[in-house]
Amino acid sequence: MQANNLIRDFPNKQLITKTTRMPSGYVDDFHSHSWHQIVFPLKGLLQSNIGDKCVIVPHNGMLYIPANTVHKSVAITDTIFSAIYLNPEKYVQYGDKPKPCQVSSFIKELILILFEAHTLAQSESNISHFLMVLRDQIDVANSYEIPLLIPKDKRLLSVFLQLKQQPDLPFTLKEWATKVGASERTLSRLCSKEFSRSFALWRQNIRLVLSLQLLDTKMCIQEIAIELGYSSDSAYIYAFRKMFNQTPSKYRTDTLEHGFATRSLISQL
Q1: Taking the model in full, what pTM does it have?
Q2: Distances in Å between the alpha carbon of 167 and those of 57, 120, 170, 226?
Q3: N or C, where is the chain less crowded by C-beta within 10 Å?
């Protein structure tokens, strides 16, 4: 059932939960909800447009969207995300600005608890306490600023779709330009216009963000580096640390240490 239908049918609840599968490339076009929304990917990557902003939400991040805020989401890869819809007329008051957050193990467990039937069967007072903690955790959570990936220009989009399928493609800017029917100068200018960065840096960002999913597998760091097209695992580790302020191994430990409950929820879908 659509989220807005659930909101309409259960107007007196404090929250409603819903889990959705989105295949790679799926577009959930511009829409809004009369309740606040928390988007929490269990698997995959989302790119969301909110007003004049655009954010990437990976599977160790979340996005808070205030009520009546128009937004759009695109699944960069096959994605499963859970959403919590929060009634703005009830006891817990949330902020009025969108916020992409890095999810701590505590926030992750709290969100998963809110999806459990026995939690929702508790008293209004107990649920309010859970939601107050969640609100406070969102307030203090670090913002998650990940460079955008999906371009608007059809020539850059062609490059992106090919790199998404095969991130180790070794083509130079000149070779990409020939493949998509543009000049080198045009591709460089388009990258600068859409992403405020060079073509090489945009391509690297695609590889690094896609690697977040590979880190959730049993592949070793060296295998992931090769899969992405890096000349060595040290080159991948250096680039990853520069973007995410931690090594791939540290990211993997922090993400997977409390991942059992998340994977358990996925297996139930």
Answers
A1: 0.80
A2: 19, 42, 9, 10
A3: N
Q: Which tens digits make up the pLDDT trace of 102-145?
A: 888 888 889 888 888 777 788 888 899 999 999 999 999 888 87
Task: Give, as one character, the DSSP assignment of residue 141.
Answer: S
pLDDT tens readout for residues 214-251: 888 889 999 999 999 999 999 999 999 998 888 999 88
Domain with CATH 2.60.120.10 in the chain: 3-140
Measure the CA–CA gap between 22 and 140, rounded to whole angstroms: 29
Q: Where in the chain is the domain with CATH 1.10.10.60?
A: 154-256
Tally of CA atoms within 13 A in the half-sphere of 173 that contains its CB: 16
3-class DSSP state for residue 80? strand
Rounded distance between C-alpha atoms, residue 246 and residue 252, angstroms: 10
Architecture of domain 3-140: Sandwich (2.60)
CATH (one of 1.20.1250.20, 1.10.630.10, 1.10.10.60, 3.30.1120.10) for 154-256: 1.10.10.60
Positive or negative, the Cα torsion across 156, 157, 161, 162?
negative
Answer whether 60's CB lies under 8 Å from 22's CB.
no
Residue 112 CB contacts under 8 Å (≥ 6 apart), including other chains: 261, 262, 265
204: left (phi over 0), alpha (psi -120 to 50) or beta: alpha
